[in-house]
Amino acid sequence: MKYFIRTFGCQMNVYDSERMAEMLDRMGFERTPDPRQADLYVVNTCSVREKPRNRVVSASRHVRGVNPDAKILITGCVAQLEGQSLMEEAWADGVMGTEMYHVFPDVVQDVMKGRTVVATDTQDVSGYTFVKAAPRPQGIVRYVTIQKGCDNFCAYCVVPYARGPEVSREVSEIIEESQSLVQSGAREIWLLGQNVNSYRGGLTFPELLYEVAQIPGLERVRFTTSHPKDLSDELIDVMASTPGVCPWIHLPLQSGANHVLDLMGRGYTREHYLGLVAALRDAIPDISITTDVIVGFPGETEKDFLDTYSLVEEVGYEGMYSFKYSVRPGTRAETMPGHLPEHVKQDRLQRLQSMHESMLPDILERKYLGTVQKVLVEGPSVRNGEEARGRTPTAHVVNFSLPGRRTPEDLVGMVLDVEITEIRSHTLYGRLAGAESRAAG
Ligand code: SAH
Ligand code: SF4
Ligand code: F3S
Questions:
Q1: Residue 98: which of 77, 67, 123, 83 has the closest Cα?
Q2: Smallest-distance ligand from the CA of 323
Q3: pTM, full prediction
Q4: For residue 150, which atom of ligand 1 is closest to its CA?
Q5: Residue 13 CB less than 6 A away from ligand 3
């Protein structure tokens, strides 16, 4: 039996898809790179905006068309929210929600036997079962989930409905999982949660981060996502003083206008956000800050938008994901007054993105060009298999050429000094620096 997993959405879904793959491997299934060969096609779905939500249906129907005998199981956030109606709309055989991964093997068996399965129950918050990650050869960068769900209910966001209440995973489970991944070759760990700063699993998040960074053999640890309202001085101190904690923070802004932040229910102001940026940069001078922005939230005026625009310009983010506000069923913003026409949202998005696109090369060149960066090698470069690809501590991808007959595979997992010689569309390019070059050659 062969399986194929298609994953939409955030790192949480990537993490969950990895767990499903591991469980299928243990059940004796074999992974196939071709959906037409699959006996089981899993679509792990995202509901955060309308577009990814709709792509689920087309992906599933497409597979039904090209591979009519495959069993199709839809998992993840859209499955949780829409259940049976989604299964019917997408011509699938089963749906499984976000809190059922611990019974995934049973769900698969039922689906393979030809039963229609709607598994969208939720678990009790006390005693919530997290599915453990398994070691994997060549898994240099691994995710570890520290928290599920979200209690913030930002007015636009469907995640608290799709993922349920926030539950923090036990410290001991997180440490054990991280240790086992490091023992099997991981050099970098990403701690995942919708709002890692509200972690309450026996330690504070900064304490947990410190503990993970102490694991022998672990080179780097990073985390995402940090909600600005809960970012503490303690976190900044731990980031600044703990070797191995990467100088990178994803700090979603959403809006630079206090009026809109208030409507969104984000719990911070523009001034507070800028204060955090200043404190982070003061304590960690080489930190990279990246963000998420929503334009066209209901009630956003042109002046509000310009507040966002100026804040993005002022901070000089090293990366930005920006989105047009998308109505999500059941959220508070759905029924708020002042929904904006598509063309206004589109125009604001385009202005924001083109401003950021035009400033980013300068930001990256000033900071990185001619410097020597510690690059953790993850594999061959995507475009050119003779070059190696890795990341800086600040999470930028670097492609670099290799001396002599070394192949990228030889260097996977090593941290090498790479001199940055060029920057093209957000990607850094370089060559091995001095002594490293001789050693690696
Ligand atoms: N927990 C994270 C965000 C998870 S969702 C946080 O609090 O930052 C990822 C991003 O999707 C959000 O940061 C937001 O920018 C965007 N997003 C969420 N809901 C959206 C909506 N209804 N319309 C447009 N963008 C949205
Ligand atoms: Fe959504 Fe807000 Fe929770 Fe992030 S913190 S997942 S934006 S509700
Ligand atoms: Fe999407 Fe669910 Fe993540 S809605 S962003 S996959 S938590």
A1: 77
A2: 1
A3: 0.95
A4: 1
A5: yes
Q: What is the DSSP letter of 248?
A: E
Please give the Cα distance from 274 to 308 (Å, whole number).
12
pLDDT in tens, 239-294: 999 999 999 999 999 999 999 999 999 999 999 999 999 999 999 999 999 999 99
At the topology level, CATH places domain 130-246 in: Transcription Regulator spoIIAA (3.30.750)
Residue 193 in contact with ligand 2 by CB distance below 6 A:
no
Contact call for residues 245 and 221 (beta carbons, < 8 A)? yes
The token pair that represents 56 in the structure block? 């689920």
Residue whose Cα lies nearest atom 2 of ligand 1: it is 194
Any idea which fold 369-440 has? OB fold (Dihydrolipoamide Acetyltransferase, E2P) (2.40.50)
The two structure tokens encoding residue 241: 């003083």
CA angle 394/398/401 to nearest 5° reads 150
> Any idea which ligand is nearest the CA of 150?
2
State the angle between helix axes of 302-315 and 270-283 in degrees (0 to 180), rounded to the nearest 10.
10
